Every structure is written in C-alpha cells, then in structure tokens.
Sequence to fold (276 residues):
Amino acid sequence: MKQKVWFISGCSTGFGRELAQQVLQSGDKVIATARQLSSIEDLKKHGEGNVLTLALDVTKKEQVKEAVSQAIEVCGKVDVLVNNAGIGYFSSVEESIEEEARKMFEVNFWGLMNLTNELLPHMRSKRDGHIINLSSIGGLASFPSLGYYHATKYAVEGISESLSQELASYNVKVTLIEPSAFRTDWGGRSSEKTVSELYSDTAGQFINDVVSSVGKEPGDPAKAAQAIITLVNADEPPSRLLLGKIAYDVAKKKFNDLLKDIEAWKETTVSADYEK
Fold:
C-alpha cells in the first residue's frame, strides 16, 4: 500500500501517543503534535525519519494554520487527520464552573474544527482524505457529572455527520471513534473536577467511581490504536466505530430504548402532520 501521512493532535499521552507509535511502526509517516514539543520529541526514535513533531495548541488558530502549512510543506500531503486532542470536566450541571465548561468546548469542539477547517481545502483539492474524530461513548449516551463534556461530544457527533455528507463527492471520509473506559488517564490528571455537594448520590458518586477506576479501566489503548489503523486501511470504513465492550453495551441499550419510545409514541408522532 502507498505510504500515508497522518496528522495527529494530542500526542503527548493516551490514544494520540499510542496511535502515533503504531502508525510509525506500520511504515506510514506521522505529523505528531502536542502543546509541549518536549513531550513528543522522543517519538523520533520510533520513526526512522518518518516523523515530524510540531508544537500545537488547537485553540490557537494562527498556530493551527502554521502547523498545517509546515506539515504540507515538509511531507507534501496529509492523508489522515486524527482529531484526538481533548480534555474532560466532571461536575453536576448545576454546579459546573462556566469557565471550565467553555474551556472544554474550545478544545473538544472548536479546536477540532480549527484543525479540520484548515486541512479541508488540501483534502478537497486532492480529492482524497480521511478525518478521524475522537468522540466517546459519551457522544451517544449520557451519565451524571459529565453534562458539559457530553455536550461537546454530541456537538462533534452532529457536525461530523454533516461533514461526512458534504465531503462525500470529494472522496473525503469522516469517521467517529467512540471509546468507553480506556487506560489513558482521562479520568485522572487529564480531567478537571468540581466536587459535588448537591448531587453527592448521583454526580458525586459517579466521579468517585471514575477516580477509583483510574488505571484499572478495561480498554487497552494499544488495541484501540490498531483498530483505528485497520479502519483507515479498509476499503469501506464505517462512519462510527465503538471501542470497548462497555461502549457496545451502552450504545445497544441506548438505541434499543430509543427505538422502543419511538414505536410506542408513533401514533402521536405521525398525527402531528397535516392530514393529506
């Protein structure tokens, strides 16, 4: 297969780092980015000349523009964009700190779109490309203490569906990745938390459960990275890929319950139209 060039955001830890390492091992090229360049310089030892490391804060448009320009200048093209950079915030909706919620939107949604929009003209012009958006099972189903986080991921899901339809004629694919609990430290130091006092038995308990599970999550980041590589090399990649048994179980229950309500209220639903 022809060597691909991957542009991956958020490579300092977690999915981003694991994916960058495995893509390099597969023989493809990687533009690895992170806010702190020092956190990813060691990736060069895996790359044998196939890795370009760049400092990138996805919330800074000028930095995004410069990174994309440099990537295309050095590598000649970008075939796969992986929007991996993201943060979490735990709190009940009522007790959430607006500054923290807005910061999360800037990274998880607007940062993702900053990078996507900067690369779209390049992918459209060559009529080829694949955009991988790291969502979450939390982009399909919601839990207490993650209301604003879910809002960012639901937004990513919605815009990805529209983008997929708009880019179809340009042969640019869009895939959502929806992991459940993986050992990426997302529930640890990678997430801010506001201790719940009003909702200790719901949001508070969920936060405690997440914190106590850090390092013991069932998901293996290495296997997730391999799944993403397999997907990118598939002739017909899916629009969504759930990762982890918890993700599968939660999604199946969500859509079964949704379909049950849809069918139970079908008569009321269709009766809202004008009579023919």
In short: The mean pLDDT is 95.
